[in-house]
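Deliverable D4.2, example record:
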Amino acid sequence: MKLKQVQETAGAIFDEAGVALSFNNDHEALDAVNQGVAICDRSHWGLLKITGEDRLRYLHNQSTNDFEKLMPGQGCDTVFVTSTARTLDLATAYVTEDAVLILVSPNRRQQLLTWLDRFIFPFDKVELTDISAESSIFSLIGNQSSTLLSQLVSETIPQKNLAAHLLVTIADVPVRVAMGSGLATPGYTLIMPPENAGIVWSKLIEQGSVPLGDRLWESLRIQQGRPIPDRELTEDYNPLEAGLWQTISFEKGCYIGQETIARLNTYKGVKQKLWGIKLNQSVAPETPITIEDKKVGTLTSYTDTPDGGYGLGYVRTKAGDEGLKVQIGDAEGILVAPPFLTM
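Output generated by the structure prediction step:
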């Protein structure tokens, strides 16, 4: 049975693009995230494949992390930036024996493909391919994810080092299992052929994982502080302001945007910082963040949670630190450190 049919049977509600927005089970799915295992379909995200003998050197020169030290089976989070260090996307890379797979945000696939292609010179032995349509992608989210997977496969599942990965077989389907759920909550990213995705999804549900829709994923990523393009990642902000320090190598050589990032780091030039914000009522993104009627930042994302309103926003570093009380429209808020940015 096709994946969409399996999800429809489970009560999924889809948008026009076929993304499973909800399974009408948010309370159960949240319990699974916190105490068991939830499964989210991220097949609408982009997957790029970089091949050719210069692939690691090429990616090393195009993004913020150190690719030249990576071996097959390893990976990393990295950020693609402009020459002035403005953020294009936060991506996750998986190095295989003959390629590098790059998991990118849904709305950045074509832009990044075009961007990366611009920097391939005639003498570079590099090829870029968009394999999004040839791949289905799931996230297992929850502390029990490794236990669940270990019951299905004979291989040793990675339990440390983000983006460490290996090929396994689940229900006779080849699946690449990579450490990291895409959120701060422990878990795994699974990549497989789309024609067999329904089989794998059914097996994981049978094993005890609970389906989680994209709307809840969006709420979780806000609560946990994962920045995304067109919200927290725009040409108005750089990766240091976005708190993505763990994706940046300050030891590697030159890359696009390196000079600006190095200067900001050396001279402590980060003038604003991304914070989580607990709020006492709902408020629209793009609303100014103020202290005593003086603007100190901007709200970038908002979600309702069982514990009240929660947002992400950039606040000037001189305004204050964690625990700072702010006003956002009619809402009162307090700054908190989001877990995704403090991993």
